[in-house]
Design a protein that fits this description.
Blueprint: E1 2-3, H1 5-16, E2 24-27, H2 33-38, H3 45-55, H4 62-68, E3 81-86, H5 94-106, E4 111-116, H6 126-144
Parallel strand pairs: 1-2, 2-3, 3-4
Length: about 150
């Protein structure tokens, strides 16, 4: 379970080590590094170069970024996945969650998707925080209890 970069790690774990974990919870995680780095919002411009240094420049490192992006390896995901996303997230665009959910569904793997229409990158409203926590517990109970 993880959010943002931690959500990416969940996707990467399920895609690149499909037998290691029994389930995963991705909370607004990066699933496509090419798109994420290409869509850096204007107020993140000061961080662009450091992100490019750390992750790669999508203009010159596209193949590497695709190689490390869970979306391009979603056919390997075999474990249940819960994806939680804020509709208004400017950092990890909702389309990334939409795409990973569709790809995992194509595998015939149980996938649940919870979108908060009134949230962005992180959940500020207490009612949404509670709803997310309840969804995590319900998902884990359904997919891990008795294992």
């Amino acid at each position: 379970m993880g959010g943002s970069y931690g959500g990416y790690m969940v996707g990467a774990a399920l895609a690149f080590a499909p037998e290691v974990f029994d389930a995963g919870i991705d909370i607004f995680g990066v699933m496509n590094w090419v798109r994420t780095l290409e869509s850096i919002p204007p107020w993140w411009a000061s961080f662009r170069e450091s992100l490019y240094d750390e992750m790669g420049n999508p203009a010159t490192d596209k193949a590497r970024l695709q190689a490390i992006s869970p979306l391009f390896h979603a056919d390997q995901i075999k474990r249940p996945l819960l994806v939680v996303q804020g509709k208004n997230d400017p950092r990890v665009l909702k389309v990334e969650s939409d795409e990973i959910v569709a790809a995992v569904k194509n595998n015939g793997v149980p996938v649940e998707y919870l979108v908060f229409d009134d949230e962005g990158h992180g959940f500020q409203k207490q009612k949404n925080q509670i709803a997310a926590q309840e969804a995590y517990l319900k998902f884990l109970d359904a997919h891990l209890r008795g294992r």
